[in-house]
Amino acid sequence: MKDILTAPFMVEMIRTASNMYAHGWDERNGGNISLLLGEDNLAEYLDTGRVLRTMPTGFEVPELCGKYFLVTGTGRYFKNMQYQPEKDLGIIRLADGGKTAELLWGFDDGGTFTSELPAHLMSHAARLKADPLHRVVTHCHPTNILAMTHVHSLDEREFTHTLWQMMTECVFVFPDGIGVLPWMLCGTNEIGQATAEKMKEFRLVVWGLHGIYGTGRTLDEAFGLIETAEKAAEIYIKTAHLPQLNTITDEQLRVTADYFKAKIKEGWLR
């Protein structure tokens, strides 16, 4: 059996988490990632019949029962993951209607999965209905997106429109827009359910005064969505207080989206 630490999904997970920490998005133990795995991906690296221990998920999600996930641990620092992945990461399989997580690898110091796992599972279920090729949910605290929620309307159409106007690539990177939630208590099923509802139509969901949820078919896609929105938010924060001499017009947004064959969310241009 091959060394699981050499598996492409493991290498990319560690690289992504390290990158997110280096960007300043995951201070202390902030942030979490979950990656949906295929059983065929695991066969070369793991005995899926050997369950190390079981843990309650705190949520029932029958449509994900039997699915495998590589997830970050609760209380873990992304900066340490490259040095101790077997402590900071775990591979789980959902059982008992999704109410139980069977640990197959990792968390070898007795740890457990992120406290945001219910929110992740709800978002995975919602995104899989929208896109069967969906695989990744990631949550982090990008500085400028967070700052923007302090000074900008949390109306998701207006929030998205502002970001679209900050730099040309935004309208074709996230033409489907960004969902926005007001402040809610994190770590609860309530915020997970609200996020999953938004995930029916958005790949990015901002948690007001907290951070962002990004999803995708790959770790690169989810990371790139957040990275692009965060850079646009940085431009906004740096320029919002200055006289605006130039802007990307709605007509230019349409032309750009048409050229890149991106479908802008209906009715979101003025």
Short note summarizing the structure:
It contains ten helices and nine strands. Helix 4 packs parallel to helix 8 and helix 6 crosses helix 9 (219-239). Helices cover 38% and strands 17% of the residues.
Describe the structure.
This protein has 270 residues and is of the alpha+beta class. The protein has two domains: 1-114, Class II aldolase/adducin N-terminal domain (L-fuculose-1-phosphate Aldolase, 3-Layer(aba) Sandwich); 116-265, Class II aldolase/adducin N-terminal domain (L-fuculose-1-phosphate Aldolase, 3-Layer(aba) Sandwich), CATH 3.40.225.10. It is 38% helix and 17% strand. The chain is built from ten helices and nine strands. The chain has helices at 8-22, 39-42, 85-88, 117-130, 143-151, 156-166, 170-173, 189-199, 219-239, 250-259, and strands spanning 32-37, 53-56, 68-72, 89-95, 100-106, 136-140, 179-181, 204-207, 211-216. It has a nine-stranded mixed β-sheet with strand order 2-5-4-3-1-6-9-8-7, sandwiched between helices. Helix 4 (117-130) packs parallel to helix 8. The radius of gyration is 19 Å and the shape is elongated. The mean pLDDT is 95.
